[in-house]
Amino acid sequence: PSSLVPRPSSLVPRPSSLPTLKLRQASLAIRSSLVPLLPMPNRLLHESSPYLLQHAHNPVDWYPWGEEAWEKARKENKLVLVSIGYSSCHWCHVMERQSFEQEAVGKLMNEHFVCIKVDREERPDVDQVYMSAVQLMTGGGGWPLNCFTLPDGRPIYGGTYFPRPQWEDLLVRLHHFYLTDPERARTYADELMNGLRQMEQFATKAGHPEFSMTTIDEMMVNWKRRFDPREGGPDRAPKFPLPNNYSFLLRYLSCAHDPETEAQVHLTLGKMAMGGIYDQIGGGFSRYSVDAEWKVPHFEKMLYDNAQLVTLYAEAHRRSPNPLYETVIRESLAFIERELSDPNGGGYAALDADSEGEEGRFYTWEPEELRTVIGRLQFDLPPGIDPVTLLFDYYRVGAEGHWEFDRNILLRKEHDDSFAARHQLSQETLLAFLRTAKAGLLHSREKRERPGLDKKILLSWNALLLEAWCEAYRALGDPAFLENAIRLGERLRSHALADGRLPHLLENGQKPANPGFLDDYAFFAQGMISLYGVTFDEAWLWSGRNAVAYALEHFSDPESPLLWYTSDLDPPLVTRKKEVHDNVIPASNSCMARVLFTLGRYFGEEAWMLRARQMLFQVTGEMPRYGSGFSNWAILLLEQLFPSRELVLAGEPEPSALDHLRSAWHPHLLLAWARTGQERLPLLQGRYLPAKTLYYVCENGSCHLPKDNWADALAEIKG
After folding, report:
1. Number of C-beta neighbours around residue 264 at 10 A
2. Is 538 strand, coil or helix?
3. Given this model, what pLDDT does residue 512 score?
């Protein structure tokens, strides 16, 4: 299946005595008594989700998520199949071809089950509930996710991908089991629901939050045991990029002298950028590598991965300037603009892994294809240098890049300076060769059948893209990046209602927009903070503040400082979830805690800063065991352990000051600028003096005497 990031089993609570489902072989009469096939297309034809539309012509009588399906299940007393996936999921396509497109399988499903198809990106709340149930039952999870429930929605059995024979056998046995032993099925449901409730039980810690560097130290000791010192990343396969892990480690390195961790961070970023997980021709990253060497990607390309990775490489470049990092930033953003952007600058959700019925077909190359394309191009190379041989060596064609069926994944094993020296080329000559070769290969690749494009525009993922544009501008100073950030920020803000309410999808056909989830609010506010940091237009901060105030009103749990994933206005599911563990995307609670702390500093909201500390206090006990799953929380913890500094600019700062503050790496420094004296931010009140430039360095909201020149202010910041 399209896997989740593996987690230690200790993080997955299990019911103490969840029984094993005893499946019985049912009679052949069940198969022979099936009703005739329903006419096609099915109900999904009226949906807007590309994933649901992919299944609109299946012989399965699919229902979209909604009351109609549950009412039918209750009326007919049938088990419900909740089948969850997303449009770019390779194994979702495989299971559809093998089972859901087959008439015999469709008959079996239609006769004995009510079948619901869910796009996990449209309904992450539904996915969270049933993914948790499958993790309890199997110890793992992924997509496609297939969970069988009672007519009231309580799960009893599930898994991920099933080959057709196993799937048909399971359908027959489950139907027979429910028909002959419904009480036992209800007992399973009770056990699972108890387990799901245990997963949400963070024993609320009361009292004044206290933090210690010991938490970070112990976390790093355990985390380092899982470093892969040869290939970077974690010492396992598959390997996920996990951008937030390295964002934390970069901040940790600003507070601690740790050569081992510093080497690991740059090793990982270099290996990912040169590996097959990175599209060497078109830019952008695939979702993960199936092996430990970053070679063979799971070829789907997701907006959330690429947005976060641009942010990560931009942060790394600001801390340690590196031409490889700059290349990744520019090429990845070019890929997003070219292949994942709508005309108004919004980011589409994903590109499929498959094309022409084959995973990775769009991205891989046969040697003869490469020879043909390169043979048509003109290069300025020294005599005796064959461009085909040079390209094959650079991208390891026929060597480490060989994959299957004589196809190659383009990857690199050598940095440009070393490669150029080995071939007795100047770096300028090598780079000119690569520009021409990449352009030619990209042009040729564009003629292939393209992977499917999921055109959903999700607010939370676009907020991550907004942060990427801002961070790329800070790292490289390209004004086009700032223009794109402002354009996207205006678009996101235009969808916020006056009371702060946000949608989950920005465009959703003719259907009403799904209400926003907690990650929509948290990432939106983070994006607004990032935009303020590059524009100093405080209207962005007020938009973020408005969204957070709404979230606190509608997502809070009166018994815990942690917030629910769904609001109190959403139709209830069988259980209500909290997102706490950081994964391929940071948890909505950790992001909201960081946002509360930052906006609390800007607006002087002591209650918000205290709420952020209380949220953090709930998870610090778990952090040492599994740092990778709490990396975003750990960034907030560093902000509690080290001085929280603010730099207030007043008047017209020197250009060198603005250039430095844009590009330099000061991860714990909060910036604000009083430009007119009309600002409403409490942090800026009384700072502006006409015809005067002042720099205020503050700690925890208390400002030192202002400096009237940048050199003195910078010395104080560094001191």
Report:
1. 20
2. coil
3. 60
Please give the full DSSP string across 238-298, using - where no structure is assigned: SB---HHHHHHHHHHHTTS--HHHHHHHHHHHHHHHHSTTB-TTT--B-SEESSTTS-SEE
Q: Write down the pTM of the prediction.
A: 0.93
Block residue for tokens 């987690």: 7
Quick one: angle between helices 655-663 and 459-476, nearest 10? 130
Closest CA to 503 of 573, 550, 471: 550
Both tokens of 27, joined, read 């009679």
The answer to whether residue 85 scores a pLDDT higher than 90 is: yes
- Helix (H) / strand (E) containing 685: none
Angle between helix axes 518-535 and 459-476 (nearest 10 degrees) is 20
Contacts 24+ apart (CB under 8 A), 63-69: 63/114, 63/115, 63/116, 63/117, 64/116, 64/117, 64/118, 65/116, 65/118, 65/123, 65/126, 69/114, 69/116
**Rounded mean pLDDT of 473-483?**
98
- The DSSP output letter for 98 is I
**What's the first-to-final CA gap in the chain, in angstroms?**
51
The pLDDT of residue 513 is above 90? no
pLDDT over 60 at 29, yes or no: no
Query: Do the strands 645-650 and 669-674 form a parallel or antiparallel pair, or are they unpaired?
Result: parallel
What pLDDT sits at residue 703? Answer: 83
What DSSP state is assigned to residue 514?
P
Hey, is 351 helix, strand or coil?
Answer: strand
Q: How far apart are the C-alpha atoms of 553 and 543, rounded to whole Å? A: 16
Q: Is 101 a residue whose pLDDT tops 90? A: yes
Hey, what are 559's tokens?
Answer: 């018994």
Say yes or no to pLDDT of 305 above 50.
yes
Q: Which helix (H) or strand (E) holds 114?
A: strand 113-119
Q: For the segment 320-349, what is each residue's pLDDT rounded down to a tens digit?
A: 999 999 999 999 999 999 999 999 889 999
